[in-house]
Write a structure and sequence with these properties.
13 helices, mainly alpha, 426 residues, single chain, three-stranded antiparallel sheet
Amino acid sequence: MEPDNGSVWATERYGSAESWNYVGKDGATERRRNLREGESTGNCIFGLFKRIFLPQGYPESVSKDYLQYQFWDTVQAFCSSLSGMLATQASLKGVGVGDQEATVTAATITWLLKDGAGMLGRIIFAWQKGSKLDSEAKKWRLVADILNDVAMFMMILAPHFPAYFTLIVCIAGIFMSIVGVAGGASRAALTCHQARRDNMADISAKDGSQETLVNLAGLLVSLVLIPFVTDNPQLTISLFFLFTILHLFSNYKAVRSVVMETFSEARLLIVMQQYLRDRQILSPEEANQREPVFLEFRKSVPIKLGVRLDQVVRSSEELNLALKNNDMPFLIGVRNGCIYVCLRPDASVRDEIRAMCQAVCLSNLMTSRESAAQQQSHWEMVHESHEMMETLFKPFIKGVEAAGWDMHRTLLDWDEWRVEWKAKSN
């Protein structure tokens, strides 16, 4: 039946699902085409699963690396759940479960000491490393899982050393507290990266649902394994190492799958060094693949960002040298083989990127001319790096924007010092 002059076609869309409706004069509606999820039983089940465990609007509402990261994150969570079962069983045995001579008081004191050590470790770690968890989220995500495996291994071994059981579980508790801080904070940073519609809460909630489902699956598998590993330390250790290998491998694959488009110190250094070599701009995918995730990120010349003015200059003469031909809202100086950068309060994100790029250029000059450092002063190299940036920075910025880098914010590890200065007029 064709629609008459008083009828219209209407198209509805819900995410990627689409339906066409024919609306007649009397308001009656006839569905002509239906591609909506739920057309078949299989699609209905998939649609329900998607609504329960994936963020609303998936895949448009999340980053492109979301699915791959969540897959490997699910694998590592399952392996961690099974390893945790083995560690928990060993801990309960160590505090006296099943031992008629053990007292409730002794077990309670041991558990309280373990929890107390963990609380102190949590506070101290957050104080010392809290500011690094944004800029080095991938590295600390991996470190957290390595420490988690170390802590569980210590808890498995602890019952075999009864004289040192309390000390071992307290150290393990400290490691587990670090895992809680580093893992939770770095996961929050990754959630911020994945959220493309300001939907961090939805992504975090669905991640919690996914983890709960995985832990439930791990619980069911643990119920099958417990009778076999009880009083069988050889099998316990063997299974633990198997789960640990899978856990670390899946964690490595997970962090390697993340492609962050914001500049951290490591990623900006990689991109800038490549640009200085051959004027090639690396894409976020290429730079993230080269970003180190295991060891502490080190540079040939250390760079300190957002420092006090007295770390850059020590006298009015040095201040004049720092301001020579420099109208940028940052100052750069060299002290004891380290490059220091201080900012004015009005420095923008682009100014921060330029300051870091100039520091990288200065680092290259200092490294290449190390043997001639006595003949050429540091201030001459600072001025030379400034001249280099006058030529290189504009095409560099255009290149990184075209390559897909986010220039609205950075994850550079700036300290909080900001300095006002004013050049003396003649």
